[in-house]
Amino acid sequence: MAVKICMLFYFINALAFTAAEEPSCPVCSRYEYEEKLLERVLRNELALENTLKEIKETNAKVLSGLAELNEHRVTLMSALDKAKHDVQTIVQDYRREINISDISQDQSHRTPIVYFRARTPATTFTSGNGVVFSQVEVNEGQGYNKVTGKFAAPVTGVYIFSVQYCAAANKWAFLGIVQDDALLEASGHHSSSMAEGCVTLQVFTALSRGQNVWVKDTSPTDTKLYEQPGHRHTSFSGVLIHS
After folding, report:
1. Phi and psi (nearest 5°) for 242?
2. Which interval of the chain is the signal sequence (predicted)?
3. Do 32 and 60 reside in the same domain of the chain?
4. Which of 2, 38, 150, 219 has the fewest CB atoms nearer than 10 Å to its CB?
C-alpha cells in the first residue's frame, strides 16, 4: 500500500513538471513560446525606455520652463524696483516743487514792513488845517512826508492809525484823522485849569496804494495843545497790519 502511494505521488510530480516546462498551446513548441516571451519582454523594455525618454524630455522642458519663469521673475522684480525708485523720485520732486511754490507764495503774500511815528513841537493849530508832525522818529516804508504831514500808503492793505494829543490847561482841543477828504475819526478833549490831560485817537482803515491819511484840526476855533518834552507830547503813528 505504501509503495502504491509513493508511485502515485511520483507520477503526479512528473505530470506537474511536464506541464510547467511545456507551453499550454498544443501547436506551439517550447522554443516558440520562449521566443514569444522574449519578444514580449523586449517590447516591454522598449516601451519602458520610450517612457523613460518621454519622462526625461518632460523633465527637461519643466526645468527649462522653471528657468525661464525665474528669468521673468528676476526681470519683473528689477522692473518693479525701477518703477518704485521712479515713483519715489517723482514724489520727492513733486514735494520739492510744492515746498518751493509754498515758499514763493508765502513770500509773495508776506505783509511788508510799513510803519511810522512822528511828533510835532507846535502847540497852536488853525481850525480846518492839517497838522504837520515834523519830527520823524521812524518811517519804515517811507510812507510819511514830514513836509506835508501826510502819509501815502506805499502798498494796498489794512492800516491802523493813532494820534495822541494833550490839551493845554483849561483849553479845548479837537483833532481828527482824515483819509483823502473823508473824516475817519475825531475827538475833543478839555483839560482842567489845574493840569493838562492827554487822550488817544485810533482808527482802522483799508487803503489802496497812494491814498493819503493825515491829521487836521477839527475845532470850531484854533486848538491849543500842551507839549512837555520827554513827558507829554503830540504824536501821529501808523502801521500796516495786512496786505
Report:
1. -160, 140
2. 1-20
3. yes
4. 2
